[in-house]
């Protein structure tokens, strides 16, 4: 595993918080002491409703027109990668086949800050097969290495690329049952779909199925440029329309089942092999700012 770097800048801000019911579709706000398993959620009152509705295990504030998400990156679920003796440690799951094996790393608490523009500006790219080549440093439009987004449950999202000499198709054999693993500095992360965010959606009363590809809605997280990461369904539970690009992305309004439009004309990708060939997080950064 290669070492990935990211910004560790801290944002000093006061969050204005109120309590909200977990099973409600009303975005409301979230109690600063609300715990999803062992994590704490703190979301400022002026943060867009989408983040209030779907994110937990993070601190979210606004800095001007930028959404700032801070996370310690610790998964709220059990995993082998917590290490023997931790209360969330479980034995590695070898049931998927003899090729699967743990990597030598143990996850550690991180200090991740992701800054997402509230109104991102498109780069004007045509994202075709030539652009999405699964090769690191082949394009200036690639997402950088390290945390490039945050999942709903506070786990970091990485791009789908491996450092020179590595291949994500080899690295996947070290994934735990949540399709995640840590780097050699302990940064636990997702490159693809995971039942982790879906378990959170179930806890929030928004889905009953936590199997990727089968849930009523599948929201995984947000990349640093403002690209939303969905699964085989749109946010309202409908099937994605035809015309996806080479990383299963397209642009339209993002609305929920109640008809609330959370984002207007927002680029998003669908990690879903039943509707396209791309099965990982996006490789090419659609919008121009990513911090």
Care to describe what's here?
Residues 1-35 have low confidence and may be disordered. The protein is globular, with a radius of gyration of 18 Å. Strand 7 and strand 8 form a beta hairpin. The protein has one domain. By secondary structure, it is mainly beta. It is 7% helix and 20% strand. The two termini are 23 Å apart.
Helix content: under 10%
Measured by DSSP, the beta-strand proportion falls in 15-25%
Number of domain units: 1
Outline: globular
Count of discrete alpha- or pi-helical segments spanning 4 or more residues: 3
Mean pLDDT: 87
Q: N- to C-terminal separation?
A: 23 Å
* Sheet with the most strands: spatial strand order: 9-10-8-7-11-12-14-13
State the secondary-structure class.
Answer: mainly beta
Radius of gyration: 18 Å
How would you classify the quaternary structure? single chain
Record field, number of beta strands: 14
Residue ranges: pLDDT <50 for 5 or more in a row?
Answer: 1-35
Give a short account of the largest sheet: 8 strands, mixed
Order of helices and strands: EEEHEEEEEHEEHEEEE
């Amino acid at each position: 595993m290669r070492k990935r770097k990211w910004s560790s800048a801290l944002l000093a801000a006061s969050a204005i918080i109120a309590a909200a019911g977990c099973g409600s579709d009303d975005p409301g706000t979230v109690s600063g002491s609300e715990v999803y398993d062992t994590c704490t959620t703190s979301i400022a009152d002026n943060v867009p409703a989408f983040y209030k509705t779907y994110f937990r295990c993070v601190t979210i504030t606004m800095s001007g027109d930028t959404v700032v998400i801070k996370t310690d990156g610790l998964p709220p679920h059990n995993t082998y990668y917590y290490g023997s003796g931790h209360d969330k440690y479980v034995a590695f799951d070898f049931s998927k086949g003899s090729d699967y094996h743990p990597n030598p790393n143990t996850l550690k608490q991180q200090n991740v800050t992701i800054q997402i523009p509230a109104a991102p500006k498109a780069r004007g790219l045509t994202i075709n097969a030539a652009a999405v080549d699964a090769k690191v440093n082949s394009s200036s439009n690639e997402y950088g290495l390290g945390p490039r987004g945050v999942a709903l449950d506070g786990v970091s999202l990485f791009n789908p690329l491996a450092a020179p000499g590595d291949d994500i198709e080899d690295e996947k054999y070290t994934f735990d049952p949540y399709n995640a693993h840590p780097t050699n500095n302990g940064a636990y992360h997702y490159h693809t779909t995971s039942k982790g965010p879906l378990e959170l959606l179930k806890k929030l009363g928004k889905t009953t199925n936590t199997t990727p590809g089968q849930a009523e809605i599948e929201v995984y997280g947000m990349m640093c440029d403002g690209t939303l990461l969905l699964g085989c369904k749109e946010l309202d539970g409908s099937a994605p329309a035809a015309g996806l690009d080479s990383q299963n992305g397209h642009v339209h309004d993002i609305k929920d089942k109640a008809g609330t439009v959370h984002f207007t004309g927002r680029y998003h990708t669908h990690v879903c092999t039943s509707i396209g060939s791309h099965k990982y997080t996006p490789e090419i950064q659609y919008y121009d700012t990513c911090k």
